[in-house]
Amino acid sequence: VRPLDHYGTRRAPRFKVAGEVEVVVDGNTATLVDLSTVGAQVLTTSILKPNQRIRMTLPEESGTIRFNAAVAWAKFEIPSQSGPRYRAGIEFLDANTTAVDAYCARHKS
User: Fold this and answer.
1) Average pLDDT over residues 37-43
2) How far is residue 26's CA from residue 84's CA, in Å, rounded to a whole number?
3) pTM, whole model, 2 decimals?
4) CB-based contacts of 47: which residues, under 8 Å, 6+ apart?
5) How far, in Å, CA of 71 to CA of 80, rounded?
6) Confidence of residue 85 (pLDDT cuts 50, 70, 90)
7) What DSSP letter does each residue of the chain carry, written as one string?
């Protein structure tokens, strides 16, 4: 387990994602908001609940990264510009840290 960051809240640096990056959460498309080697924040129209176990896929031209994850927290939103959605924090359970770190480097803003 890594030590927490200087704010005492994060085990790994989190990066905002540049542009619209789509990922797959349990077979459904989701938009990546931010990403670290141990977790991510996503937006999706699919229902996500805390402690729910999921499969996550980070599609890439060079090869897809797939792993198991769990929903750490979820919030239902109804933004004025679009329809209802869920904003959720995802904790990676068995992701390849090296592959996810390289994915972060390619997609951070």
Assistant:
1) 95
2) 18
3) 0.85
4) 86
5) 25
6) very high
7) -PPP-TTSS-SS--EEBPS--EEEETTEEEEEEEE-SSEEEEEESS---TT-EEEEEE--TT--EEEEEEEEEEEEE--SSS--EEEEEEEESS--HHHHHHHHHHHB-
